[in-house]
Amino acid sequence: MGGSATPALRVRSLSKTFGVRTVLRSVDLDVARGETVVIIGASGSGKTTLLRCISHLEFPETGTVDVDGRPVGRVAIPGGFKDASERQLAVQRRGIGFVFQRFNLFPHLSALDNVAIGPRHVLGLTKPAARARAAEQLRKVFLGDHLDKRPAELSGGQQQRVAIARAVAMQPSIILFDEPTSALDPELVREVLDAIRVLAASGMTSVIVTHEMAFARQVANRVIFMDEGAIVEQGAPEEIFGRPREARTQRFLEHFRTEARTP
Amino acid sequence: MSIDWNIVETAIPLLARGTLVTLQIALAAGALACLFGFALGLAALSNIRPLQWAIAAYVDFVRGTPLLIQVFLVFFALPVVGIRFDEIWAGIIALAFNTSAYIAETVRGGVGSVERGQTEAARSIGMFRWQILVYILLPQALRPMLPPLTNELISMTKNTSLLSVISVYELTRAGQAIISVHFVPFEIYLLLALYYYALIKALSYLSRAIESRMPVL
What we know:
The structure holds 2 protein chains of 2 kinds.
Chain A: E1 9-18, E2 21-31, E3 36-40, H1 47-54, E4 62-67, E5 70-72, E6 74-77, E7 80-83, H2 86-93, E8 96-99, H3 111-122, H4 127-140, H5 156-168, E9 174-178, H6 186-201, E10 206-209, H7 213-219, E11 222-227, E12 230-235, H8 237-242, H9 247-261
Parallel strand pairs in A: 3-10, 3-11, 8-9, 9-10
Antiparallel strand pairs in A: 1-2, 1-4, 4-5, 6-7, 11-12
Helix pairs in contact in A: 3-4, 3-5, 4-5, 5-6
Chain B: H1 5-44, H2 49-64, H3 67-77, H4 87-112, H5 116-124, H6 129-159, H7 171-182, H8 185-213
Helix pairs in contact in B: 1-2, 1-4, 1-6, 1-7, 1-8, 2-4, 3-4, 4-6, 5-6, 6-8, 7-8
């Protein structure tokens, strides 16, 4: 594998402020190809903003993002870089899948067309090829029987699985999951986590922001704990969950255990 | 006060002819207004600044001036600079010019009010701005846009009566012609009101029928 030296994702000195509030403080992050990274941390710790800045749905103030060694949000010019135009950014985003907390499916399109529209209009596949790819991805998330249903006819868990298929169908270099189960009823969480687990096992590079600690422990190759816009600690799941070094990580996990016991 | 039923009987077919012209004008102007209104509304949502300014100035002009003056400008002023239309086309163009500004605003507002997550999801799969507008936002905005759109087309249809002042032989002018010969303003203006009312009713019924056939998102 000649390209294995280039990480799927490389983030350097990423900072973001909203008004007077600093949300990201010079974050560095490398994600290797095929790796599954889970980011945990309290609400407001900057996890979501980090994902949104990586895909440039939010523009970071400083810092750089590269996916598969190619810049995102900037383009090379002689002697340096300049900001990418909206059009260039759209092309760069093809390499970055994004799964939203609230699914954000297109309500006027069937499940199949939700997944097919990207391959068709962005990647330029023929209509039959795009639909075939979409159907295949939907079958992989066990929605083969729901191809023609509109989002409104699907449960939250099914909608989120369509959203996962929509991201995967673009064959991105990496998929970012922003609290993919936070908007779901408890009984629907499992089916979505299972879909992500299968995807991660198939070698898809993923960064997952979640509050599902058991899932994080299971699926992650690496767990990152964030607090106040910075990465506090990272390591293998058994390290972070078993013997966290930092006091802040310990406090957060302790708080979580207490919460989990409270009915 | 008694109604002259003989005049009413004579007037009904004559006014029907005028109604046909009114209908033709409304259809032509409505089609043009929708075409340009949608195009301009979407163009206003592009990221081309000069285009946005030009559209804003156009909408501002239309909203800030009476339709009657716009009709006069097209019919009397444009020929001075060598652009000449017959009275029907001058009327159609003036009405379309006027209505497409309002439709552009409706389209801009309707498309702009689609939930922000839709744009983000479309961006996340790498769509260009125009693709997001055409494939994602516009289809979702259509149903909520239909009532205000209907209002604008109804206003426009009623405003066709203004074209009587540039001698377009539409419904109002047809009525005035009868009045000038027989001097029966009561019967004829009442009939005109009925004709317009029926026309508008048909239009709003059609709009509701279309709306009920559109899926709720």
